Amino acid sequence: MRQAKIEGGIATGFRTRLGDLRLEWGHDVLGRNDGQELDLTYRYTFDDRNLKISPFITLSYLDAKLANYYFGVTEEESQLTGIPTYEVGDTKNVSIGVNTYWQATDHIFFYANLGFDLLNNDITASPIVTQNFDSTLFVGGGYLFGPVRDSKYVSPDRAGEWSWRVNYGYAGDSNIAKEPMTGDLEHSDKAYTKIAGFALGKLLQEAQLFDIYGKLAAYRHIEDPYQCDFWSFAAYVMGIGKAYLPWSDKLAFRWGFGMGASYAQQVPILEQIKQAEKDRNTNRFLTYLEWTVDFPIDSVIKSKLVRNCFLGLTVVHRSGIFSSSVLNGEVGGGSDYYTGHIECLR
After folding, report:
1. From residue 91, how far is each of 25, 69, 129, 135, 302 by CA, in Å?
2. At 27, which CATH number?
3. Which of 149, 258, 264, 298 could form an S-S bond across to 290 if both were Cys, CB 3.0 to 4.6 Å?
4. Where does residue 179 rank: exposed (0-12), middle (13-18), buried (19+ CB within 10 A)?
5. In 3D, which of 236, 235, 233, 287 has the Cα closest to residue 264?
């Protein structure tokens, strides 16, 4: 079965009055095919303030490993299915399309993106390919919080604000909701493992009642004697809500929710056990969810050292989103960790 890939690489580009050029190189970081891809894109944007229309054309180069993984037929697959073997070499494809964006109001926007991939003859000749082009259509919309029509998303006195957090805890027995939210913090009866983490965040947008951070986190999974200890890494966007004392600008507590992606060097033992019970896949790459609640330390301890520091609970969750994500390997479950944390804003 072909699996979705995650690419890591480099990209560069520049803008001119005649349009934008962008060059991207990517490599399969999960080792599913060890292939590489090189894309050169030209785009011209018609910008009428609230309406943007951007037609584009992309020339793509796929090396033999990547092309053969998705469009070739191995001897083993041929024996199982009866489809003749087929091998694809280096290929070049062309993509054309248009992206559109409409800012309907100060906060509401809509978008629609349409694209066509014109496939190389070496690909269309494959016995598992039934057409000479592929099409995609994305339509959506959203609501933007804060002063989005103002270019200053962060006030000058908080423009350089970063956060750092350390947390430590254990594998939990329940999902990210609802048990932990009601104070049920029982450790897992399937495997008693621990986790220690460090997270770094950058303030992206502020408001009186809500801040948004971009965050990177590294976790050390302590899983002896089940298996060797290992690292996992998460990149995510975090929304932090702020509650104040009555008739005051004094912060009473914060609560937050974050979502992004998690990659682990090994599959946590808890995920292995839970997935084996239901005969499901496991995957090192999963969706990442997190919720937190904390209280300002300086409300109890009056010291400059703990100014803008918070003590609280962080629930860390790795998830396959109920088998709905092909990128996650159609994993049907995940793992949860209940951790105490200290976070400071600087």
Report:
1. 15, 12, 15, 19, 65
2. 2.40.160
3. 258
4. middle
5. 233
Q: How many CB atoms lie within 10 A of CB 60?
A: 17
Phi/psi of residue 144, nearest 5 degrees = -100, 125
**Residue (of 291, 293, 294, 270) closest to 282 by Cα position:** 270
- More confident site: 326 or 276: 276
Whether 263 and 328 share a structural domain:
yes
Cα torsion angle, 166, 169, 175, 180, sign: negative
| Residue 294 structural domain | 156-345
Please choose, from the candidates 86, 47, 83, 84, the residue with its C-alpha nearest in 3D space to the C-alpha of residue 69.
86
**pLDDT at 321 (0 to 100):** 58
What is the distance between the alpha carbons of residues 12 and 185, in angstroms, rounded to a whole number? Answer: 47
Q: Count of alpha carbons within 13 Å of 59, Cβ hemisphere only? A: 4
Q: 322: buried, middle or exposed (CB in 10 Å: 19+, 13-18, 0-12)?
A: exposed
Q: Does position 331 have pLDDT exceeding 70, yes or no?
A: no
**Pseudo-torsion of CA 25, 28, 34, 40, nearest 10°?**
-20
Q: Is 317 exposed, middle or buried (0-12, 13-18, 19+ CB in 10 A)?
A: buried
Q: Same structural domain for residues 200 and 310? A: yes
Question: Quick check: 289 and 259 in contact, CB under 8 A?
Answer: yes
User: Which token pair is 126?
Assistant: 């494959």
Q: Is the peptide bond before 152 cis (omega within 30 degrees of 0)?
A: no
Whether residues 161 and 135 fall in one domain? no
93 vs 82: CA distance, rounded Å = 28
Residue 80 backbone dihedrals phi, psi, to 5 degrees: -80, -35
Residues 176 and 316 in one domain: yes
pTM of the model: 0.67
